[in-house]
């Protein structure tokens, strides 16, 4: 039972899609007491939420709050960071609110918005429903100027240097905070800075963590502003409130064309190890989910590959990385006892085993200190996600666990003074090193500042001696340069437009030629794909379109597999023409999709286009159909023979 503040909301009048402002019934659940409000607007609800900062906002349908996903994102952006939106009726497959209320002993009048709002609040308190997640666990932090620099006057360069210097200083401070956060939590981040006169124009940080966990907050002062926003998901994700009962796991991934996957339990037992060629991201995620809930997704290389990072984000797992790339002999030594068939399985096993060994001592301490009958796996899960052992036990058992220092004081045990002294000495050494670096940096800045001030004073003195007529001439020349630059840019843009128009006319001319041949019956159009890859197929689809009934020519049929062939099969094409050999997997995929695969068919090329004689094509298709019939009969015969052999084998065992 959740004991925090919960808002239950149900629409009472109107609709978010109507022009009139909708009104809502609100039920506030606090300390098991309900306070109701009727006919409340959405803006007033936001004001109430900002004051109370509830844990949950519970509804039976999220689209009662907003007409679409974009408006729902804007609504969630206005909520406090600690407030979560809950849809109590479930995720994609919803259940009726009245049915859920009856199942959980809640009486309600389904025609009363106030009763429905209260039912939503009470169901959320019972952990019924799903959290609505519209943001990835990736946060963008932007440090930029707080104001426009404008055209300025004589002191414009000094002002620009001051502002850009402040942006650079703020960027370095945030980078130090993120480095410490990354080291403590095992997360990663990237940064990109655009340099300006005297410092940075702006800096952007992409942090692989949720916004509420990052120890950086939005701020604005006279010169610099810091904005923080979460990266939006492509689709709405529904996360069940009820904790998953699946086993927690450590997953090792070796990405590439062939993907190696190794899954260990938190006890170090091997649950799964295999490798797959041409497997998709969704298939990898499903396979991992079938074996438990990943707490750590690990890799054996550094820096972390993008494919591994994408899988980690799919599970909101902690990243396991060795910091440096593991040596081949170390991988072999770690994976030998488990056994493996190829290098991909070895590398994924090494990643999982290395990560497990890093946490092994922590897991041992958890097992020693966990209370009897407590969910040790769940305690380990919280410890991996940054909680101390005491906090994790308290979170799972709801019983406060005294810290080691408190236990030692109560029992009279002595604390290891040497160990604490070493920690303090190391901390002091790090602080002193940082202080010395900052002092050197400040000294360099002061020297550079003095030199720049001297140069500025000289330039200002020279400028002040210029006559008014000379100043006007300089301004005139500056305006002329600006206009000349704009004219040059427009001429370049015009040339590009003319070239694009000429290319389009040539393109249309070729299409008309092919269309004439098609109308006369002299040739059928053939769509040309230059390489048997997903990218080349997509390029042809975007440029010319590949539709049902089209004939496709593969200029280079090497390299493609079943997954690539499936794209053309799903498009419903009539046939595929190839010039050279194709992989068995792709050939089989075309055969299973009933797409004729034709070779040595005479075609006529027109640069990016091609045509084929209808009679030649029909003959080739007929020949392919005959071969296909023979192949299917052979497959049926083999299948029947296999069944007969199996039947005979069973009969022999029965007689025996």
Would you mind describing this structure in some detail?
The protein is an alpha/beta fold. It has six domains: 6-128, Nucleotidyltransferase, domain 5, CATH 3.30.420; 137-239, Alpha-Beta Plaits, CATH 3.30.70; 251-379, Nucleotidyltransferase, domain 5 (2-Layer Sandwich), CATH 3.30.420; 426-461; 476-517; 523-638, Udp-n-acetylmuramoylalanyl-d-glutamate--2,6- Diaminopimelate Ligase, Chain: A, domain 1 (3-Layer(aba) Sandwich), CATH 3.40.1390. It has helices at 42-52, 69-77, 97-103, 113-125, 156-185, 281-290, 306-315, 328-335, 343-369, 376-384, 389-397, 404-411, 417-464, 468-520, 534-543, 562-570, 584-592, 614-655, and strands at residues 6-13, 23-30, 33-40, 56-59, 84-87, 130-145, 189-196, 199-207, 219-220, 224-240, 248-254, 258-265, 270-277, 293-298, 318-320, 524-529, 551-554, 575-578, 597-599, 603-606, 609-612. The strands form three sheets. Strands 1, 2, 3, 4, 5, 6, 7, 8, 9 and 10 form a ten-stranded mixed beta sheet that branches. The protein has a six-stranded mixed beta sheet with strand order 19-18-17-16-21-20, sandwiched between helices. Helix 17 (584-592) links the parallel strand 18 and strand 19. The relative contact order is 0.05. Residues 417-469 form a coiled coil. It holds the Pfam family DUF460. Keywords: Coiled coil.
